[in-house]
Amino acid sequence: MSSVLLSEAIVHHNELPMPAILYGAIAMGLFIALGFVTWSYRDVSNRNFRRSQKQAGH
Questions:
Q1: Which helix (H) or strand (E) is 54 found in, with range?
Q2: Distance in angstroms (rounded) separating the CA atoms of residues 47 and 31
Q3: φ, ψ at 52 (rounded to 5°)
Q4: b/e code 23-36 from CB counts within 10 Å (16+ = b)
Q5: 31/25 Cα distance (integer angstroms)
Q6: CA 13 to chain centre
Q7: Are 49 and 55 a contacting pair, CB within 8 Å?
Q8: How far is the first Cα of the chain from the last one, in angstroms, to the nearest whole number?
Q9: How far apart are CA 10 and CA 6, in angstroms?
Q10: Which tens digits make up the pLDDT trace of 7-22?
């Protein structure tokens, strides 16, 4: 009876495919890359020639 209880007490855990810290490093790298893409669009509206002429007097 005790061998049945002990055999059911063994739990098999799935191993992660990489160390846990790498998940955070990948996420941080992704957010930095997306932040750079967002930052690169900071002055797009001022590149439009027609809009620049309309706004020149303001």
A1: helix 49-55
A2: 26
A3: -65, -35
A4: eeeeeeeeeeeeee
A5: 10
A6: 26
A7: no
A8: 88
A9: 7
A10: 666 777 788 899 999 9
